[in-house]
Amino acid sequence: MIDRILVPMDDSDHAERALEYALENFPDADVTVVHVVGAPSMMMGEAASLALADDFEAAAAERAEGVFERARALATDRGREVDTVVGVGHPARNIIDRSEGYDTVVIGAHGADRGRATRRFLVGNVAETVSKRAPVSVVLVR
Predict the structure, then answer these.
(1) How many degrees, rounded to 5, is the angle at CA 14 between CA 83 and CA 34?
(2) Per-position DSSP letters for 19-61, written without gaps between them
(3) 24: number of CA atoms within 13 Å, CB side?
(4) What is the DSSP letter of 78?
(5) Cα 140 from chain centroid?
(6) CA angle 43, 129, 111 (to 5 degrees)
(7) Angle, CA 120 vertex, CA 116 and CA 122 arms, to 5°
(8) 123 or 60: whose pLDDT is higher?
(9) Which of 33, 57, 65, 85 has a CB 3.0–4.6 Å from the CB of 71, allowing a cystine?
(10) Angle of CA points 136, 26, 38, to nearest 5°
(11) What's the pLDDT at 44?
(12) What is the distance between the alpha carbons of residues 116 and 52, in angstroms, rounded to a whole number?
């Protein structure tokens, strides 16, 4: 039985469809939406990272709140509620580590398109990595 579902969300249509899928197909499960933001690069040096930390934190919180507002609206439209949490760091790694407390992950097949070819070359596809490495079942939603 699936009691707890983790749904990673960014601002993509695929992420919204993943949340809709989770809400509609698992009506009795508790759903947690996670939005993962990358940390300022430590390669820039500690001083530069510290100088950017406040600006980064404010921008990340604003972006996450926009994602969470949309998630709550989708849930409310279906008579449901969702919990929300912000993760910081590498998206796939954060989702995989966090998934251990859940029965399944429901994730959009593709995230927001921000130079997909370059991003895939550098860090890989988040959904693909999560589906291969998560310790729980993963549902990919197109």
Answers:
(1) 25
(2) HHHHHHH-TTSEEEEEEEEPPPPGGG-HHHHHHHHHHHHHHHH
(3) 9
(4) T
(5) 13
(6) 80
(7) 120
(8) 60
(9) 33
(10) 50
(11) 56
(12) 25
Largest CA distance in the chain: 49
Residue keyed to tokens 């009506």? 27
Nearest-angstrom CA–CA distance, 133 and 38:
19
| Span 78-133, pLDDT tens digits | 999 999 999 988 999 999 999 999 999 999 997 655 555 544 443 459 999 999 99
Query: pTM value?
Result: 0.84
Q: Is 1 exposed, middle or buried (0-12, 13-18, 19+ CB in 10 A)?
A: exposed
Q: Domain residue spans in the chain?
A: 39-84
Higher pLDDT, residue 121 or 65: 65
Q: Which long-range contacts (CB under 8 A, 24 or more apart) does 42-50 make?
A: none
Q: Please state, in angstroms and as integers, the Cα–Cα distance from residue 118 to each residue in 9, 38, 121, 124, 127, following that order.
A: 21, 16, 5, 9, 16
Residue that has been written with the tokens 């996670």 in this structure: 34
